[in-house]
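Late entry, BV8 complex.
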Amino acid sequence: MGDFEEACARLRRTDSLFVLTGSGISQESGLPTFRGVNGLWRTHRVEELASPQGFARDPVLVWTWYNERRAAHRDVQPNAGHVAIAQLEERYADFTLATQNVDSLHLRAGSKNVLELHGHLREARCDRCGARRPLEGALQPDEIGHTCGGRFRPDIVWFGEPLPENIWARAAAAAARAEVVLVVGTSGVVEPAASLATRAPRREAFVIEVNPEETAITPRADAILRGPAATVLPRLYETVAGRGVSCGPT
Ligand code: BV8
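Prediction complete; structure with ligand written out below:
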């Protein structure tokens, strides 16, 4: 039985699925990844833009970058890969989606149990008192200061910052109890998110990787589906739902 058939058979048999996604699942919506050829980290300096030090040094520059990213998020649509994951969710009593993405595309595709490990761009948070304000359009330089004396920052987890405790705990627990783990569109470079696919799952958990390229997660994968998410995931869903080619013996 090939990897695709085995992945289908496992997805059909289980009622406990944990999904981890990275920026690759949004690539076919038109958003850049981080470490790819035209990746964000190739065209920008991480330290200046995605770190507490960079924000302290130049909050206006950091907001210029996040305003641009948020505008880009609003200009694009969820793709067939996001939709397939939302459709898969309906089939499992125990389903958790942990995403490293901050683009809100999983929520817009209809996914419900979504853990945003690295935050999102729907709100800004005061770095002193924690007050929140919705991010309707771009946050202007004169809106960064807060009356408490703090500054509004993107509600994002930057390098060197801990992931939100309750979100991390729920993601780690879901990854540890899942019978099947589906990993889509992540290079597996960033920790502790990548450990949800490599160290958290039980030894007998079946790990499926959907990615056009080999990654740091590939050695843990039991089924490797080499291809773009917006092609592979709908095919996987249709087959698991019994509308595509057979999954092989179930
Ligand atoms: C922390 C901000 C501790 C949001 C981001 C070991 C343990 C713990 C920490 C560390 C550790 N080792 C190192 C660290 C530190 C660090 C880290 O991981 N560094 C890396 C670079 C080595 N981790 C941290 O700092 C984390 N914090 O550990 O805190 C702590 C604890 C207590 C108290 C204080 C501190 C915080 C990490 C979060 C950083 N924030 N971004 C934003 O601006 O967006 S990370 C950034 O990388 C994004 O969030 C992104 O999602 C994430 C992961 O990248 P990917 O999504 O995987 O993207 P990438 O481009 O790499 O890969 C894309 C993939 O898609 C590729 O494989 C490609 O082939 C594939 N693809 C392309 N097209 C498609 C596709 N796949 C499918 N279909 C396609 N069409």
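The pocket of BV8 is lined by residues 22-25, 27-28, 33-36, 39, 50, 100-102, 118, 156-162, 184-187, 189-192, 210-213, 215, 228-229 (CB under 6 Å). Will revisit in the morning.
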